[in-house]
Amino acid sequence: MKISEISKLSLRKNSSSFNNVDKRLKFGIVGVGGGGSNAVFEAWKKLGSISSLVDFVVINTDIQALKKPGMKDIIKMLIGESTTKGLGSGGKYEVGKAAAKESSEKIRKFIQGKHVIFLSAGLGGGTGSGAAPEVARIAKEEGVLVISFGTLPWRFEGAERYKNALISNHELGKVSDSLILFDNESFLSGDKVSSNESLSDLFKEINDNFIRTIITLIDLVYDSSLINVDFNDIKSTLTNSGFALFNSIVFRDISLDAERTEKNITIIRETFEQKFNSRLSILKKEELKIAKNIILNISGSEKILKMVLVKEIINGISKITNDKIEYIFGVSHNEFLGDKIKISYLITGLNDPMKIEYEKLMDKK
């Protein structure tokens, strides 16, 4: 079974998919603070079957938070024992940063030997905001590819928390190769939230996006059924690539009829635009015009996945990006998709969406 053969974002359990793959590549999935640790816990539940390729770690200043039940096979790392006495950061950015500096060698020991770190943190609190940039910085010093995920707080959580988040986002962006940013506030905007939705539903959507990004990048390296991408292709594309956007789309109503070519491109373009305007994206549509690279994974059944459709997908995406964007793409067969086509994409080279807010904050100091 390929890692791309996922039903409702879950890997089939007890899969021996990776018994014969090259295990020289090693990935680390790192959660810093409470929000980041929750994301890693969810990732472990769905990706635990590939633990031969991946190490999971949660990092916190609060020893009680590391005692969450059910976190089997996840490394628990307490940082800043002298700084915080294991009692947490008290929501202070500076304390979280100091704790990570105090425990830098412990963090470095975990990172050594890894090729890619997927780092998740909720921004605004003390540990996530203060420690996450330090973890990313150490990983960069070790030559590891760092793909970070940050989540901004709701504005009603207070000005101090939002200030911490803006500072942390700026710092994390400087030391990550690629940073994907979510904003809790966007989940409350206009028609993007349902009155029946629970908080756990909203967090699940963000965590699932985190998990899909991991799956897509590992899949590109290991799934070589049609067109694969080697790791160095991915690393050279993502190194120091700035802010990024990731998502997955399933295209329906795609036809192989030659007369439907323009219709197919329209469906692809409109679906892509709709997904870009979803609440998972806090970027403006115009940002796509400056994007530098797109990593694209295309999968479908052998019956439906023809080269002409791959070309149409790329043409459809080009309609709303720019003609200078560089593509790296993998193509694989996935019979579970039936008559549908699934694409997962990571667009890089985007601007920091919070840059203006951050500069306003700095001007006030």
Beta strand %: 15-25%
Distance between the termini: 55 Å
Proportion of helical residues: 25-40%
Number of helices: 11
Strand segment tally: 10
The CATH topology of the largest domain turns out to be Rossmann fold
The CATH architecture classification of the largest domain is: 3-Layer(aba) Sandwich
Supply the CATH superfamily name of the largest domain.
Tubulin/FtsZ, GTPase domain
CATH class wording of the largest domain: Alpha Beta
Q: Could you name the ranges where pLDDT drops below 50 across 5 or more consecutive residues?
A: 1-20
* SS-derived structural category: alpha/beta
Overall domain count: 2
Radius of gyration: 20 Å
Strand order of the largest sheet: 3-2-1-4-5-6-7-10-8-9
What gross morphology would you assign? globular
Properties at a glance:
single chain, 365 residues, alpha/beta, Rossmann fold, 2 domains, ten-stranded mixed beta sheet, 10 strands, disordered N terminus
Q: What does the model show?
A:
With 365 residues, the protein is an alpha/beta fold. It folds into 2 domains: 27-222, Tubulin/FtsZ, GTPase domain (Rossmann fold), CATH 3.40.50; 244-350, Rossmann fold, CATH 3.40.50.1440. The chain has helices at 33-47, 81-84, 93-102, 104-111, 127-141, 159-175, 199-222, 231-238, 261-276, 307-318, 355-364; strands spanning 27-32, 54-60, 75-78, 116-122, 145-152, 178-183, 242-251, 293-300, 326-333, 341-350. The protein has a 10-stranded mixed beta sheet with strand order 3-2-1-4-5-6-7-10-8-9, with helices on both faces. The longest helix has 24 residues, at 199-222. Mean pLDDT is 82; it is low at 1-20.
